[in-house]
Design goal:
alpha+beta, 3-stranded antiparallel beta sheet, 14 helices, 9 strands, globular
């Protein structure tokens, strides 16, 4: 039913889509980008034909799947500011990072998700499910670059978010997740040190997603006595938030590759630009001078 609807709305012959499904994992162009902290991240950008199908699936299917309130990335109407403000009033902060986030999410996780959330797949045929997986997973794993990957990752992490929030509620801890970054905050000294080990055990024991692991090298504790940063936003000891230079660099990088951003990323980018210019009106002029008026305003307005 899902595939039939897609072929009809996109005016594509079913045999054309079937051929693309068979070769989908090979329909990507790979290129490396340098990580800010060193090393290289591989981006796999889908072909124009495959990307068109992925965009349809994102808008008409994946975007309708439930997302936990603790998940603040890749959601229309949410920005990095929402993630940061949730921790503004707390004295102590813990950031934990999940290693190899997208590649750790697999078709096996998708099968488990279907088994645990059958209401999401009412009226789906086995072919619908198989084709969705083939069109959105590359060789059985999510990839950085496909427009469907961010939203699918939020769906697959729903049960993880539920479990971690329940754990935090028993400790009086605030919890948010921004993609692969987990943030915990508290006003009680020492509680986050205890939480760190518990979170590692929860992540490692979850049946869904089954292969996520915490990157210990990136875990960071901070407090009001020093600098607390949440997704590049500085939480001031005066109860205000401040935009760090890293966020501005990230915004510029996103404006540079604006045409490749998914709709959810565009919406998030627009919200971030709006927030930054509220603090620093000259920042918009910087974007205009660097990228031109049309692209800068397109990014600010969240337009395709």
């Amino acid at each position: 039913m899902i595939i039939e609807r897609m072929t009809q709305e996109l005016s594509l012959p079913a045999n054309h889509v079937a051929r693309l499904v068979k070769t989908a994992s090979y329909q990507y162009k790979q290129y490396p980008i340098a990580k800010r902290g060193g090393g290289v991240r591989t981006i796999c950008h889908p072909s124009r034909r495959l990307k068109a199908l992925q965009k349809w699936l994102l808008a008409n299917v994946v975007a309708t799947w439930p997302v936990h309130r603790a998940a603040t990335a890749y959601r229309k109407g949410h920005t990095i500011m929402d993630n940061a403000v949730a921790h503004l009033s707390s004295q102590f902060l813990l950031r934990m990072d999940m290693a190899q986030f997208f590649p750790s999410l697999s078709v096996d996780d998708m099968v488990t998700y279907r088994d645990l959330h059958p209401a999401v797949f009412v009226d789906w045929s086995q072919q619908d499910f198989d084709w969705l997986c083939r069109l959105t997973f590359r060789f059985g794993r999510l990839t950085i670059g496909a427009p469907t990957s961010p939203a699918i990752s939020n769906a697959l992490c729903f049960d993880l978010d539920v479990t971690l929030e329940a754990l935090c509620q028993t400790r009086g801890v605030s919890y948010t997740r921004y993609a692969d970054d987990l943030f915990f905050s508290s006003n009680e000294k020492g509680v986050l040190t205890e939480m760190e080990g518990e979170v590692k055990r929860v992540v490692a024991s979850m049946p869904l997603p089954s292969s996520l692991r915490i990157n210990d090298d990136k875990s960071r504790h901070s407090s009001k006595k020093g600098a607390r940063r949440v997704t590049g936003i500085v939480l001031g000891s005066d109860g205000k938030v401040y935009v760090g230079r890293h966020v501005k660099r990230k915004v510029k990088a996103q404006v540079h590759r604006l045409n490749s951003l998914a709709s959810t990323d565009r919406a998030s980018l627009a919200g971030t630009i709006s927030y930054i210019t509220g603090f620093d009106p000259a920042f918009m002029n910087t974007l205009v001078q660097k990228y031109g008026h049309e692209r800068a305003t397109q990014a600010r307005d969240g337009r395709p």
